[in-house]
Amino acid sequence: MKSAGVAGGLAFLPMFALEAAPLRYSMKPVEIAPGAWMLTGVDEAITRENGGAIANITILDTSEGAVVIDTGPSRRYGVQLAETARELTGKPVVRAFITHFHPDHVFGSQAFGAKTLAAPAGVVEGLKRAGDDFASAMYYLAGDWMRGTEVVLPEQFVETGVEDIGQRRIRTLVLGGHTDCDLAIFDEASGLLIAGDLAFLDRAPTTPHADLPVWQASLKTLSETSFSGLVPGHGPMEMTPRALRQTGDWLKSIEELIGGAFDRGLDMNEAMQEPLPAWTQKIALARYEYERSVMHFYPKLEADLWPRVDRQD
Q1: Exposed, middle or buried, 90 (CB in 10 Å: 0-12/13-18/19+)?
Q2: How far, CA to CA in Å, does 169 sit from each of 150, 154, 291?
Q3: What is the CA radius of gyration of the chain?
Q4: How far is CA 16 from the centre of its chain?
Q5: Range list of H helices, the chain
Q6: What letter would DSSP give residue 284?
Q7: pLDDT > 70: percent of the chain
Q8: What is the CATH number of the domain that holds 33?
Q9: Structural domains of the chain, count
Q10: Is residue 25 part of a domain?
Q11: Range of the domain at 63
Q12: How far apart are CA 169 and CA 150, in angstroms?
């Protein structure tokens, strides 16, 4: 699928953004279980300096080939990810799962081809709906790192269930809340729960497409899984449910803060200045993401709660 948004994004770039960026991402896979590795994204917003490599990526070795979970922010990243997976496992990638449609997790997909890509139908629909706009935004934000990147739609559809790939039995859980469709994966061989962006750890969650009650319900579902390690979409892997608890606490806090500010009649700019709980001081990008969440949720509150002047009782 050719993306019109790619060309559109290039048309609006300042010339300095087209200067050559460093040729390669710095990929440092860490083994987190036998035959399982994690590439850790940086705890930053997407910039030209980091090339959009802010999300965690997981690689699994199977007897049939390598499995990757999420593909990163650009074609260039995806090509390097494929190289890294082959170096670690000695095999090509046979399956690339996509946890949701946000660009830092999906735009490396060109390196694997549509038939290798697997995602829930809701993720594919999200890409159809927003992929071109995301491409334009990523070209603007990350510049030359995105050169040659286009939207690719997965051709394998995933539902909640169990699939055997080589010697690994992979449980797929189709949930939602961070977006309207989110995929989490449990690898029975290693006991790893790869939560995608349903879980953040020590980095503030993003909310541009969030439904907070649905997200909280998904966190409850994940917490009922007995795992030996949890890979969040952003932040360090841990052997405890801390990422699930912390994500739930953050969502509860911002819902209360933003709702309280709205109820007190504060405008959006005033709501952005509300003090955050003391525990969030150690959370990367806490103020940045809180302010973004105000921008995401205030228009919804206004649409739902303000009286309509075009309607009469």
Answers
A1: exposed
A2: 31, 21, 41
A3: 20
A4: 28
A5: 4-11, 75-89, 103-106, 121-142, 212-223, 242-263, 268-272, 286-305
A6: B
A7: 90
A8: 3.60.15.10
A9: 1
A10: yes
A11: 4-240
A12: 31
Q: Is residue 255 part of a domain?
A: no
Establish if 311 belongs to a structural domain: no
Q: For residue 182, list its beta bridge partners.
A: 175
Q: How many contiguous H segments (helices) and E segments (strands) does the chain have?
A: 8, 12
- Looking at this protein, which amino acid is placed at residue 210? A
Mean pLDDT over 173-200 rounds to 98
CA 184 to CA 173: how far, in whole Å?
5
pLDDT tens digits, residue range 270-304?
Answer: 999 999 999 999 999 999 999 999 999 999 998 88
| Span 89-130, pLDDT tens digits | 999 999 999 999 999 999 999 999 999 999 999 999 999 999
> Helix %, strand %, coil % for the chain, to 5?
40, 20, 40
- Find the mean pLDDT for residues 18-28: 72
Q: How far is CA 96 from CA 57, 109, 190, 200, in A?
A: 11, 8, 18, 21
Q: How far is CA 313 from CA 188, 224, 302, 306, 307, in A?
A: 58, 47, 19, 14, 11
Q: What is the pTM of this model?
A: 0.90
Residue 291 counted as domain residue: no
Question: Which among 214, 167, 217, 223 has a CA at the least distance from the CA of 195?
Answer: 223
